[in-house]
Amino acid sequence: MRIGILMGGRSLERDISLRSGRRVSRALQELGHEVVEYDVDETLVPNLKGAGLDLVYIALHGKFGEDGTVQELLEILDIPYTGPGVYSSAVGFNKAFSKEIFRRHGVPTPPFFVLSEATFQEMGSLHALPVIGKKLGFPLVVKPVAQGSALGVRVVQEGGELPEAVRSALHYDERVLLEGYVRGSEVAVSILGNAELEVLPVVEIVPRSGFFDFDSRYTLGATDYYCPARLDGEITQRIVEVATRAHRALECENVSRVDIIVDEAGNPQVLELNISPGMTESSLLPLAAEAAGLGFRDLVERLVRLALEKYSR
Ligand SMILES: Nc1ncnc2c1ncn2[C@@H]1O[C@H](COP(=O)(O)OP(=O)(O)O)[C@@H](O)[C@H]1O
Ligand SMILES: [Mg+2]
After folding, report:
1. Domain 112-180 is in which class?
2. Domain 2-82 is in which class?
3. Distance between CA 63 and CA 211 in Å, rounded?
4. 2-82 and 91-108+183-312, same CATH topology
């Protein structure tokens, strides 16, 4: 097959995407495919038109790659692509919409409030922050509504830190999410499939210090991963159930990775769902696949097959 890979681009996660993309590119070539790499810029659409591609593998992370934008373009050009469609991408990349939909589908997610930048300028919502602090309690988590790789995410210990944390999150998006802090074990659940789903072994994430922020993710040895997670069978079963429900609630196809914290009572709380999980050497989806006996190349092959299956129905 002739497969195009979209990577890089101008998002803040450009470097991670290049790492994912190059690794996927190598695997696709080893599988015998003809690969065309695209570092996404304004030449993308003209280059894709008439390129004769059988499929596009989306290895983009962050805005435009993960928020339904590029998916929409590929729909317009009638080029099959890997990963969930426009709706799941647009909603999945927006933590506020995702959480609203999770709630409506009985997917447990921490309590939250959303404020837009405009409400600070035009409605004085700075004065709402102490109220939110009281309602959610401390610590609480402040994050951009639409961003990834923990960029702009802060754990806030007391009210005095709130305005600065909010300001910092608003650098990344025009909306900020304030969320109740969940104490417990962090896990990631990767799901493969279309109508029928395969839930890969749960990965437990234990950063050596602080939370699972950008440095904990991409610095070698900064985080310990356990796969399968060191949790008892009943809790693992609950996690799998909740992750599957989240995947279905956002109507995902092909793949997703659901980020969860299991609270101290053993109840999984969904933080978010990712439609373009990282594929780097230290990423969670390849790690989970490995534990299920799927090497990196097998995983890439499976993603290609799932993508084509979606279009053959
Ligand atoms: N409500 C929360 N309680 C505790 N830790 C959180 C919470 N929300 C986020 N975190 C921490 O911040 C990290 C990034 O948050 P997440 O919502 O997954 O956003 P991102 O899209 O940046 O990965 C998580 O991996 C977790 O370590
Ligand atoms: Mg996450």
Report:
1. alpha beta
2. alpha beta
3. 23
4. no
For the entire predicted model, the pTM comes to: 0.96
Using alpha carbons, select from 84, 81, 59, 75 the residue that is nearest to residue 9. Answer: 59
pLDDT at 55 over 80: yes
Give the closest residue (by CA) to ligand 1 atom 15. 150
Ligand 1: residues with CB < 6 A are 110, 141, 143, 147-150, 153, 179-182, 186, 211-212, 259, 261, 271-272
162 vs 143: CA distance, rounded Å: 11
Rounded to the nearest whole angstrom, what is the distance from the C-alpha of residue 25 to the centroid of ligand 1? 29
pLDDT in tens, 17-26: 999 999 999 9
- Which CATH number among 3.30.470.20, 3.30.310.50, 3.90.660.10, 3.40.50.1370 corresponds to the domain 91-108+183-312? 3.30.470.20
Domain boundaries, the chain: 2-82, 91-108+183-312, 112-180
Per-residue pLDDT of 208-236, as tens digits, reads 999 999 999 989 899 999 999 999 999 99
